[in-house]
């Protein structure tokens, strides 16, 4: 943990100072805003993924399986298809951010209520329905994208991929408050998360209201994913990558170590990766593409490793 903390500080320092030329009173606040956005997304994605894998007891699943990324793509596609890119660009970013987060939370709420509100409470059924909904959203978005004007489609493509360069600083305050509040609640639940990791039978035997806590934890994960997705766009494999690196580097089941460890690894990946791309490679590639490629490789390795056991 000490080494991870030191590396994250080094990455942040390099991001703020490397090749900083001109007026420092402009450069430092500009980079600080961007750094805050990177750290915020890193913490939200890492914490959400570790908690999600704890309650599902599966280390190859991420919250993206619930269809939030596909829903984000559908929202952007419907907006550009119905209003046009010019009108969408004129919408207040704060109003658009709030609307996107609200729609994702409504979708998750309806899903949880339908599958967790009755006597039958199956987490696996919830995940299956989430996959089906994600496929449905992606299919509708694909249909609309085929009907859209080619020029509008090119503009839409820029909105569909995760971008760490265009984080709106007016949204950071609200997003930071929400993420901090959710993390504070999860920090109080650390002993409960440790028990939930033991499995349903053990959790119930130790006095944990398993169904209720799983539903509440899923709600908090949904908030984190919705905020990070609305802020920068969908990132499918970042959580998978940093969570499994945390399991490897921090061989413990205690969430008091895993959650901050995964968050620090995510900060190192995002801030260090963005520094490398901006200062060394001069934007020759996109950070989201590199992360998705590395995360995809980790996913395949985990699947192959599981199949050979």
From TrEMBL:
| Superkingdom to which the source organism belongs | Bacteria
**UniProt xrefs under InterPro entries:** ABC_BtuC-like, ABC_transptr_permease_BtuC
Give the record's keywords alphabetically.
Cell membrane, Membrane, Transmembrane, Transmembrane helix, Transport
Compartment(s) = Cell membrane
The annotated topology with respect to the bilayer is:
Multi-pass membrane protein
The record's Gene Ontology biological-process terms are:
siderophore-iron import into cell
| Entries under Pfam families matching the protein | FecCD
Recorded GO MF terms: transmembrane transporter activity
UniProt-listed SUPFAM superfamilies: ABC transporter involved in vitamin B12 uptake, BtuC
Query: What GO cellular-component annotations does this UniProt entry give?
Result: plasma membrane
Q: Which family does it belong to?
A: Belongs to the binding-protein-dependent transport system permease family. FecCD subfamily.
Protein name, as recorded: Iron complex transport system permease protein
């Amino acid at each position: 943990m000490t080494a991870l903390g030191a590396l994250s500080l080094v990455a942040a320092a390099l991001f703020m100072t490397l090749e900083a030329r001109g007026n420092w009173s402009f450069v430092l606040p500009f980079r600080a805003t961007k750094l805050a956005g990177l750290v915020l997304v890193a913490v939200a994605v890492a914490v959400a993924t570790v908690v999600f894998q704890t309650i599902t007891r599966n280390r190859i699943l991420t919250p993206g399986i619930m269809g939030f990324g596909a829903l984000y793509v559908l929202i952007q596609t419907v907006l550009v298809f119905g209003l046009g890119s010019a009108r969408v660009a004129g919408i207040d970013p704060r109003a658009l951010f709030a609307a996107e987060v609200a729609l994702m939370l409504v979708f998750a709420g309806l899903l949880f209520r339908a599958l967790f509100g009755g006597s039958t409470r199956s987490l696996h059924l919830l995940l299956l329905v989430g996959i089906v909904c994600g496929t449905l959203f992606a299919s509708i978005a694909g249909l609309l994208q085929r009907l859209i004007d080619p020029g509008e489609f090119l503009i839409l493509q820029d909105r569909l991929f995760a971008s760490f360069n265009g984080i709106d600083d007016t949204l950071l305050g609200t997003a930071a408050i929400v993420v901090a509040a959710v993390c504070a609640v999860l920090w109080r639940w650390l002993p409960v998360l440790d028990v939930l990791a033991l499995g349903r039978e053990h959790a119930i035997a130790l006095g944990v209201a398993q169904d209720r806590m799983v539903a509440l934890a899923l709600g908090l994960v949904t908030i984190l994913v919705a905020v990070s997705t609305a802020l920068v766009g969908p990132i499918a494999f970042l959580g998978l990558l940093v969570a499994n690196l945390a399991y490897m580097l921090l061989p413990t089941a205690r969430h008091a170590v895993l959650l901050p460890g995964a968050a620090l690894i995510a900060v190192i990946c995002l801030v260090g990766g963005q520094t490398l791309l901006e200062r060394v490679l001069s934007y020759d590639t996109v950070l989201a593409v590199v992360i998705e490629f590395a995360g995809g490789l980790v996913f395949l390795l985990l699947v192959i490793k599981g199949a050979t056991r």
